[in-house]
Amino acid sequence: MSNLIDDLEKLRDEARTALADVIDLEQLDVLRVRYLGKKGDLTAILRGLGELDASERPLVGARSNEVRAALEAWIAERREALAAHALEERIGAEKLDITLPGRAHPIGSQHLISRIRDEIIDVFIGLGYQIVEGPDVELDFYNFDALNHSAQHPARSASDTFYVRDYSGDEHVGPEPSAVLMRTHTSPVQVRTMQEQKPPIYILAPGKVYRRDVADPTHLPQFTQIEGLVVDEDITFADLKGTLDHFVHAIFGPERRTRFRPHFFPFTEPSAEVDVSCGICDASGCRFCGGTGWVEILGCGMVDPNLYRYVDVDAERYTGFAFGMGVERIALLRYDIPDIRMLLEGDMRFLRQF
Ligand code: DAH
């Protein structure tokens, strides 16, 4: 009898050690079959029960039940621990580490040309102007005729203007149809606005313009202009000067002065070109301003009453002024950029400075 009890205890101790070393559920199952299965070690020991005295059997039977219960409890305990461990490992492996810094999407910024355009627009919105737009592909009636350009005006020449279609040679019935062209300035918006709106008119018209110029440090075949037009009662040249003074101070700084030089434009009378005092030498003359102390920034004048013939505005009652400026040129002057082409080359080292 003592043999069987010894065997049971040996089995129990061996099993306890083996179960403690098990590392996964498969190994655990192998051990369970080995100790408790039908052909397992415990069954093998109990086979010896038949050879014992009937009086000894209950004790050995009770012992074997204790050992079986202990083994089952250890196996259950190990199974639970291994399952918990396996789950933890899976969660660990599948975990998204949300503590990693995200990948930034560069959002970019406004191009210098757009920014200066918007700054200029803001100045005039502050004065109560309305923003309007006209088409880039324009009729020569608006680009030239209605702006007082004679049929022979040099700006109409094919070497200055991109013509989309010239109808002048076509057979046609009725009035002479216009040529279609890429507008060479934003001034046609003056005429379109006066056709659509009654005075008082206070508008600003930003947009692209096109000329058959070869790109060089001061020219681009496509650039940006901003046109201004005011038509109201009692508008004088003093209003024009005051408005442009305010604009120059807002964009270039309060210390800058303006100078109006008589000039000619077909659609204004009188006309002027406006210079701003050189920001580098304060009008004493340097290389930047060509020794003159001044740099040209725009053209302007009083609306030529002849334009009112094309639109329904009473020339006896209303007067007006107009101005037009190149946005790229203002950007160059404001930031001392030596070559206008740099604005369009897309070199990020240049553009990021602004
Ligand atoms: N349209 C002219 C140009 O492109 C600029 C200009 C001059 C506009 C005088 C005006 C103005 O409105 O009054 O050169």
Model description:
Helix content is 37%, strand content 19%. By secondary structure, it is of the alpha+beta class. The protein folds into 2 domains: 2-93; 112-351, BirA Bifunctional Protein, domain 2 (2-Layer Sandwich). A 7-stranded mixed beta sheet has the order 1-5-6-10-9-8-7, sandwiched between helices. Strand 7 and strand 8 form a beta hairpin. The site of 3,4-dihydroxyphenylalanine (DAH) has 11 residues, from strand 9 and strand 10. 3,4-dihydroxyphenylalanine binds at residues 185, 187, 227, 265, 268, 299-301, 322-324.
Strand content: 15-25%
Helical stretch count?
A: 10
Fraction of residues in helix: 25-40%
Bound molecules: 3,4-dihydroxyphenylalanine
Order of helices and strands: HHHHHEEHEEHEEHEEEEHH
Which features does this protein show?
single chain, 354 residues, alpha+beta, BirA Bifunctional Protein, domain 2, 2 domains, seven-stranded mixed beta sheet, three-stranded antiparallel beta sheet, 10 helices, 37% helix, rod-shaped, binds 3,4-dihydroxyphenylalanine
